[in-house]
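Q&A log
Question type: sequence-to-structure
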Amino acid sequence: MPLMHFQNVYAMIAMTELSTIDKFTIVVNDIKSFDYFFRRPPLSLRANIYVMLIDLDKGQVIKEEKLCNYEQ
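Response status: OK
Response body:
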């Protein structure tokens, strides 16, 4: 991930007040970055976070998967 480390993304989300219906989507354009998030998912982050893989050339969403879930 060249521009922003995933820990920084998680820190920004952790400092935001959330409810059970809020959803964050992290968008990446290469499979290595997509897979990287799932190798190290957050363990104690209370948020609905999804990771979306897109194809910039085609302007399409390839896939989107849930990374973690908001649990009360």
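Response note: DSSP finds two helices and three strands in the chain.
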